[in-house]
Each structure stands twice: as C-alpha cells, then as structure tokens.
Amino acid sequence: MSDPVLLGSGKVREIYALDDDRLLLVASDRISTFDVVLPTPIPDKGRVLTGLSAFWFARTREIVPNHLLDLGDDGRSTVCRRLEMLPVEMVVRGYLSGSGWVDYQAGGKICGHELPAGLRESERLPEPIVTPATKAAEGHDLNIDEDEAVRLCGRERYAEAREAALAVYRFAAQHAEQRGIILADTKFELGVDADGCVTLADEAVTPDSSRFWPADGYAPGRPQPSFDKQFVRDWCLQTGWDRTYPGPELPDDVVAGTRARYVEAFERLTEIEFDRYLADPKVVL
Ligand code: PZK
Q: Residue 1: is its pLDDT beyond 80?
C-alpha cells in the first residue's frame, strides 16, 4: 500500500486519495472567523467536527446514503467512498440569515424562492428552502437559482440531491431543536457513486458547515449569536482587528472558552460525553 496522496486542502482540513475508490478526510484544529484562519488552533476542534459529522452520517444513512466508510482512532480522520461530486453545493435554510437575509432585503427572494413580505432577520421560514451555490474563483460561494442548478446537474440528479438535502436538514433540525440548538441553515455536498446513486459527502451538519444558534434567547429582528464562534468573534473584534489577514493570536482563556463551546455543541447534539469520543471515536456510529 502506497502513502496517501494529497488531493486538496481547504481552510481547515485536508483530503487525500487512499486508492481509486477511497479518500481520507482529515480535520485540523484550525478555526476561521470572518473568512480568516486564525494563527491559534482550538484543541480538539477537528475531533468535534469529525465526530459530529460521523454521528449525523450514522443516524441518517437510512434516509440518504452517505460516503462514510470508517472513522479513524485519532477521532479526526474519516475514510470515505470516492464519488463523482455534483458541481453545486446544496444549502438548506430554515431561517432568514446571512446571504439569504441580504438577498431577501434586496428583492424579497432567495435563489428564486419568493418569500412572504415583512419577514425579519433570523425569522423562521414557512418551510425550509434549498438555495444552491457554486464555488466561485476565490473559494467564495455564489448563490444560483434552482434552474441554473438543474442545468449544471441535470434535472433528475438535482431533484434527488435537493430531496436528500431537505430530508437530512429536517432530521437534524428537529433533533437539534429538541436539544436547545436551532439549526438555522446548513450546507451539503453530494456526489454520485459508481451505481449512479446520489450520496451525501463531505461533512454533515457541523458548526463549520452550518449556523447553530442557542434556542435560549432566540429572537428574530436581529442577527443571532453563533453557538460556537460568537465568543471568539467578539474577542477578535474588541482588539480592534479590521477582519483582514492576519488575525490576532488568541489568549489561553479565549482558546479554552471556544473549545468548551465546541465540546458543548457536541455533547448536546450527540448526548455522548466528549471524553468517551476521545477514548473511542466509534461510539458515535
Ligand atoms: C471531495 N471535496 C471538498 C473536502 C478539502 C476539500 N467523497 C468524495 N468523493 C470525491 N470527492 C470528494 C469527496 C468528499 N468529501 C470533496 N473535494 C473533493 C473538500 C475536504 C477537504 F480540501
């Protein structure tokens, strides 16, 4: 067996080819805020994200097939089935936030979805909507309408991917809400396996691919604090940082407070002690 070959590198994780059929995804402890990766890692952040992803993959595999094959003993790596990836990301939004709120304010629509008039920032939508996006040049996401997504994926493929994304969002949002966390929105990446089956890939319903809001204190009409990142964002801004590279180094108490928030999200959502995950990651499966 030859060494894994680095295929790609995101802001906070790496992807390697193991062989023709399998990939290795490795999540680092790096954290980004305002699109800038900070110089100070958050210990175990990669394990929290990997564990949460594996938890959702294990619990939704009967709803939608997914790429997860194995979870490493290090708690931060997963072996995945290699797929033909769809050229669009599927964002599911249950609440009005981020670029959705910006687009709604500009014209009452998000990615072609007509929404009721008079909605407030962070308000729950009448129904979750799928807002596809493509990766633009500088890694930034470009919202597109569903007609454009159909052109890029094919009608049947897009319809299948859309239903898969909605089904996993509904499952996870209901699960999270019962545990005091609002899943405002989440981004899915899907691919097609060798048998032509639409399959969930990448990470699933993690703090890096989603907006998690504490249900406690939720009130529409303003932005909501992020369950995981608000503490580190607030600290960075109060230093006078202008949101450009490089970001500030984090002091120990901010590192510890941020780690505690990631671990709390993991424990509330999985109902598994994080120390048990560290001792034996497969407990989430
Ligand atoms: C794949 N990415 C994005 C993820 C990165 C980049 N199962 C799969 N099959 C084929 N390709 C991919 C996947 C998955 N997942 C995903 N790029 C390719 C990505 C993680 C780190 F640097």
A: no
Residue 140: pLDDT band (50, 70, 90) is confident
Mean pLDDT of 149-162: 98
The C-alpha angle with vertex 240 and arms to 235 and 245, in degrees rounded to 5, equals: 90
Whether the CB of 119 sits within 6 Å of ligand 1:
no
Q: Which residues of 196-216 are buried (b: 16+ CB within 10 A; e: fewer)?
A: eebbbbbbbbbbbbbbbbbee
CA–CA dist 36, 196 (Å, integer): 37
Number of the ligand 1 atom closest to the C-alpha atom of 13? 21
15 C-alpha to center of ligand 1: Å?
6
CA of 17 to the centre of ligand 1 (A): 10
Reply yes or no on whether the pLDDT at 139 is more than 80.
Answer: no
Q: Whose CA is nearest to atom 22 of ligand 1?
A: 9
Residue among 15, 32, 80, 203 to mutate when testing ligand 1 (max atoms within 8 A of CB): 15
**Taking 80 as the threshold, does the pLDDT of residue 7 lie above it?**
yes
Give the separation between CA 54 and CA 206, rounded to whole angstroms. Answer: 10
- The first and second tokens of residue 150, run together, are 């159909």
42 Cβ inside 6 Å of ligand 1: no
> For residue 202, how far is its CA from the centre of ligand 1 (angstroms)?
6
Separation between Cα atoms, residue 129 and residue 246, nearest integer Å: 35
The answer to whether the pTM exceeds 0.90 is yes
* Tokens 């180094």 belong to residue: 249
Q: Cβ(202) to ligand 1 under 6 A?
A: yes
The tally of CA atoms less than 13 A away on the side-chain side of residue 228 is: 25
Helix, strand, or coil (residue 261): helix
Residues 51, 277 contacting (CB under 8 angstroms) = yes
